[in-house]
Amino acid sequence: MTAETNPQPGATASAEPSATTATAASAATTATAATLTPDTPLIEALGKRDAQAIQKAFGFNTVADMLAHIPRRYLDVGELTAVRDLPLGEDVTVAARVIHAHQRRMHRRKGFLLEIEVESEQDGGLMPMTFFNGYLAAQQLTPGTRAVFSGKVTAYKGALQLSHPEYTLLGEDQEAEAKPFPIYPLKGKIGQIRVRTLQAKLLERIDPETFTDPIPTPLRTHHRLPDRVSALRAIHQPENLQAAYRARQRFVFQEALVLQTFLADRKAALAGQTAVPRPKRTGGLLEAFDAALPFMLTPGQVEVGEQIASDLARSHPMNRLVQGDVGSGKTLVALRAMLQVVDAGGQAAFMAPTEVLAQQHAAALRSMLGELARAGELGAPETATRVELLTGSLKTAQKRETLLAAASGQAGIVVGTHALISDHVQFAELGLVVVDEQHRFGVEQRDKLRDGAGARPHMLVMTATPIPRTVAMTVFGDVDVSTLKGLPAGRAEVKTFVVPLALPAWKERIFTLIRDEVAQGHQAYVVVPRITASEDQHHNEPAGSPGQPGSAGQPSSAAATVAPEEGMLPLEVQAQENHTQRTPLETMYEVLAGHPALKDVRIGVLHGGMDPADKAQAMDDFENHRSDVLLATTVIEVGVDVPNATVMAIIDADAFGISQLHQLRGRIGRGNLPGTCLLVTNLEHQHPSVERLETVASTTDGFALAEEDVKLRREGDILGQSQSGGKSTLNLLRVMRDADVIQAAREDAHGIVAPGWRAAHPELARLVAELEDSESAAYLQRS
């Protein structure tokens, strides 16, 4: 029973007063007893009434959809125990009928106690059972109901009983066999009995001849997997748990094979497309840039750079993802790739997810290039090019000049946001598209930029969020993945501490540390999870602009805020009122501005609700040290580079995920100055979210943290949005647990995908086509 339909722990059936009647009625309307195929509509297989009920509850339309609804676990019955032989303290399973049921209020605690008495079907013995606040049990376990109960035998007032046992309901004619009972995820008013009954009806009418197997026979033999029909029967009607587990593993492999075949097919399709080769040339811009570098490239930068250079020289489009930890030098790698393309007569488009980042990247590229970015200016080197910025907030004259530079080819590199894919933007010869933080862009946006330029340009995607190997195999199977390892010389150490506000000395240290660093000429970030007190707590950046700073940079106080006591952080106040509230930026500004330790400290504000010009000004002020502290939301998460910043205090750090905290922390320690990151929380030390913070504090290895992040998150999120119609790609497959299965399936998929593979493997092709049409496919392409 799923949590959505089972508020009482342990219960495994849902209210279903007429399941057997409904089944009998549907059986009468079933068209024929013909053998079923995967595509057979449920209305033909089950009849109109049952088919409509299943479609309404689960969205299933075909036999394959329904049979893919796998039990989430099993109630292992084993040998049924006679009531007269119950052993105290042992786990037992009893098949019985409810004789009496009674509810009474508890005296010493809230809620009620459900007391039932059952009669054993083994020996006719009577036994009491109790459920604390058993709301669902009170509805289901009425006199006359048959069920199998499982739990530990306890003693109460000298009598043996089962306290809050797990149970599954039995139909009136259903035998309580000593076999595992499948427990299905449930929705709506469809209960366990009805799902089992309907699955059994389908299983009776399938065979290997018509219910073909998507796994080719040689692969099944090689991996010692049961065929599809045998596995379906074993997973829905197992003789024992071992048989169910073996069948489950077969479907884990099937999911992995379908996904990897989809990715291998897409990779083959991309390899068949053509692009203009952009090989290195001697005496060009890239060579001049490398000669002027004041430092040596890291071994990782050299290795990844050679991989990209080789891709660019080929006549089919590069499709490469560069992943690297915070500060590993990805921007330099991307710049060298862009210079190689410019040398070969092409242009490069560098797309960033926000205007702040686009401005940062444009400034960083110009700074790194120096005179080599001054093409057309007096005294500029002959090999120089131009770096232009194109964002939605540019004034008309600036935008017109940039558009002309792109269209004429004068601009070798154009940096921008989604404004780059406007119909008004044309390139003379776009040869390379670099996308920073690819998960911020929709597939339609990138495809428009990539496909709207005549010849298909090469594609380089950069992510600062390290990806575990198994996730990369699962999500980026059609992309060549480069891992940029190591950090450039001179990067300082960043120490991270969890700051519990329950300890006053720790709380005060936040302010004194900021004061001390500012006094030494350094700067600090203070990060909060939301802008205003009225903002939806699930969104960091609202669509509008509440709390937009005034001319002095101070947030508006239009929204109601909590007036904290001096030195008291807002989340302490809010914790007293509502543990789900998060500290708003506007209130944090009042705390910082009013604290005696920060009396002469200049505070800037930056958040996503501000006008683009105000955001640019706030960032420029911080970069040029016209402000000492930048109070911000997660708009600074990636790309922002201020080497003088040495402290970051993340307020309500438990509101952020592991990867996000690691990204935020990466904004400090970017020069040769050591950094300190404070993860501030109001939670108790034993809280699970504090354990997550301790994990972040324990290491700066982004790849290790990424693996922990995947383990903690629901794995279905790996492929983005949840699926409709029961076709969720990660139904059983788990990317961390099933790494070996994914690797084996990947190798097998590359052996399958060849000209004509769809005709040779029609059922596998059908499942791949379903994935192509699903929301998961859009996410995979978006990634």
What does this structure look like?
This protein is α/β, with parallel strands linked by helices and 783 residues long. 37% of the residues lie in helices and 16% in strands. It has 27 helices and 21 strands. The protein has a seven-stranded parallel β-sheet with strand order 11-12-10-13-14-9-15, with helices on both faces. A six-stranded parallel β-sheet has the order 16-21-20-17-19-18, with helices on both faces. Strands 2-3-4-6-5 form a five-stranded mixed β-barrel. Helix 8 (228-236) packs across helix 9, helix 9 (241-271) packs across helix 24 (739-752) and helix 11 packs parallel to helix 12 (330-343). The two termini are 34 Å apart. Residues 1-32, 441-446, 536-568, 572-579 and 720-729 have low confidence and may be disordered.
Strand content: 15-25%
Strand order of the largest sheet: 11-12-10-13-14-9-15
Sheet/helix structural class? alpha/beta
Low-confidence parts: 1-32, 441-446, 536-568, 572-579, 720-729
Shape: globular
What's the alpha carbon Rg, rounded to whole Å?
31 Å
Mean pLDDT: 81
Number of strands: 21
The span between the termini is 34 Å
Most strands sheet: 7 strands, parallel
Tell me the helix content. 25-40%
Number of helices: 27
Q: Would you summarize the structure shown here?
A:
It contains 27 helices and 21 strands. With 783 residues, it is an alpha/beta fold.
Structural descriptors:
single chain, 783 residues, alpha/beta, 7-stranded parallel β-sheet, 6-stranded parallel β-sheet, 21 strands, 37% helix, globular, disordered N terminus
